Amino acid sequence: MRRLTDEPAAGAEGGALGTTAERATLLIAVPSASLAFTLAFNLGAFDTIFFDAVFTLWVIATVVLVGSLASKLPPQSWQGRFVLFVPSIWVLGAFIVDPAAEDTASQAVFIGTIVITIVCLPFIAWILISAINPEFLNLPGSNRLAIIAAVLFFALAGYFVGARNDIFVNCDDFKVSGNDLPSNCLPTEATPNPGG
Question: How far is residue 151 from each of residues 25, 38, 93, 110, measured CA to CA in Å?
Fold first, then answer.
């Protein structure tokens, strides 16, 4: 496997556009940190991760899994493929077991699938990033740490901004975007605070 180098790439006018490793780091960090911010913002503002994000994770993991089975795309290990199958276990568990059922067995299966999915999330993220962006594994360690630091920073920032959304946006911003109103959103004349 070829390690990405720190050799500058020439631009259209002969000037340097940054190194290959720097460009790959930016290409991976931007969408990863943006997604982390969005998920954490919703968790901070609404105390939940929206179902569409969960289903998006399932779709991405399933597509990468099928791609690895049908071609030479990563991951080529059965451990990696199993981790990518975990969101499907959650979907199948939710389909088979009624989460509103009150019997102990149904509740245990439903809670078990959620716990398994949550425990596997860091591994799923790692495999998805390295499968979709194979350059990630070839980056120098400092660049990989920079990506992880950016994701963690923006996840924390997203949670803080979501939890204290009343500082940054108002109730109208949530309403116009089609979202529910968090209990602590900043009221306006048009949209009073739902929390009273």
Answer: 12, 11, 29, 29
Instruction: Determine the residue type at 108.
Output: A
Residue 3 maps to a domain: no
pLDDT in tens, the chain (196 residues): 455 555 555 554 444 578 888 888 998 899 889 988 998 999 999 988 888 888 888 888 899 899 989 988 888 889 889 888 988 887 887 777 766 667 777 777 767 766 776 777 777 777 878 777 777 888 899 999 999 999 999 999 999 999 999 999 999 999 999 889 999 999 988 777 666 5
Question: Do 159 and 170 have their domain in common?
Answer: no
Its pTM surpasses 0.85: no
- Residue 84 · residue 75 · CB < 8 Å: yes
Rounded Cα distance between 151 and 10, Å, is: 29
What residues make up the domain containing 26? 8-163
- Yes or no: say if 37 and 104 are a contact pair by the CB < 8 Å rule: no
Both 174 and 121 in one domain: the answer is no
Q: Which two tokens stand for residue 107?
A: 């509740």
CA-to-CA distance for 90 and 48, rounded, in angstroms?
A: 17
Sheet strands (E) in the chain: 8-10, 16-19
